[in-house]
Amino acid sequence: MSADRRGLLIILSSPSGAGKTTLARRLMEWDESLSFSVSATTRAPRAGEEDGVHYHFTDEAGFKGMVSAGEMLEHALVFGNYYGSPSGPVRDAIEEGRDVLFDVDWQGAQQIANSSLQDHVLSIFVLPPSIAELRRRLISRGQDSDEIIAGRMKKSWDEISHWDGYDYVLVNDDLDTSFERLKTIVSAERLRLKQQPGLTDFVRGLQAEFNDEEQS
Ligand SMILES: Nc1nc2c(ncn2[C@@H]2O[C@H](COP(=O)(O)OP(=O)(O)O)[C@@H](O)[C@H]2O)c(=O)[nH]1
Ligand SMILES: Nc1ncnc2c1ncn2[C@@H]1O[C@H](COP(=O)(O)OP(=O)(O)O)[C@@H](O)[C@H]1O
Questions:
Q1: Is the full-model pTM beyond 0.90?
Q2: What is the CATH architecture of 9-215?
Q3: 151: buried, middle or exposed (CB in 10 Å: 19+, 13-18, 0-12)?
Q4: Is the CB of residue 17 less than 8 Å from the CB of residue 138?
Q5: Helices 175-190 and 20-30, interaxial angle, to 10°?
Q6: Does the pLDDT value for residue 216 go beyond 90?
Q7: Given the DSSP bridges, would you call strands 9-13 and 100-103 parallel, antiparallel or unpaired?
Q8: Is residue 129 marked as binding?
Q9: For residue 108, how far is its CA from the centre of ligand 1 (angstroms)?
Q10: What is the tens place of the pLDDT at every residue in 82-98?
Q11: CA 54, 59, 64, 65 torsion: positive or negative?
């Protein structure tokens, strides 16, 4: 199917707890045509997470099988667990001119930005307003043990240190403000010339109409 618009691969990354999952969920509610790239992971499900919806939960053998079958667009080891983005649904969406939303770490963002789909990438990094607030959010989420929270805090600087490799950076202080900014970024990027291949034919039509008027 040929599309009026080229699909975007919208990548959200942040240190754990900065709010990318919350922003991603809001973006999906805002635009139902967006597809979420459901990652495969070897980490255990959190309360409320559904297999096939939030993640494809698998074991290490299953994960490695997908990687060696060439089924992953990117994959990485994060906090001791494997995570990866299955490539099939992404390629289908791009072919149909649909956008795909990714919640991946900096390693995944870099791999997608270096892949054959690099022209479709729109990458956004989410920063917390402070490290104290990051810790508060991780604790208030109430999903992880103290040990896991401490591990995530320890790794947060590693993730933050890649902030300047992204197209946009959002400091997620007030959630509503961040969400408005995120919608603005996505809306503007969809209007870029390179995202609208149908414009060439549209302008040809304008030219034909213009020429007809000139002659009459
Ligand atoms: N490279 C890569 N990273 C992923 C993928 N899925 C999730 N992640 C990242 O793995 C990290 C841990 O994710 P998760 O366990 O859900 O905890 P979160 O940090 O609270 O979102 C986050 O930085 C995610 O962005 C994936 O498919 N590939
Ligand atoms: N701007 C914000 N202000 C206050 N709390 C927030 C904000 N954004 C997210 N949160 C809360 O912080 C916690 C971590 O957010 P989450 O989206 O799970 O982060 P991430 O996916 O980056 O790990 C959640 O409890 C979420 O409701």
A1: yes
A2: 3-Layer(aba) Sandwich (3.40)
A3: middle
A4: yes
A5: 60
A6: no
A7: parallel
A8: no
A9: 9
A10: 999 999 999 999 999 99
A11: negative
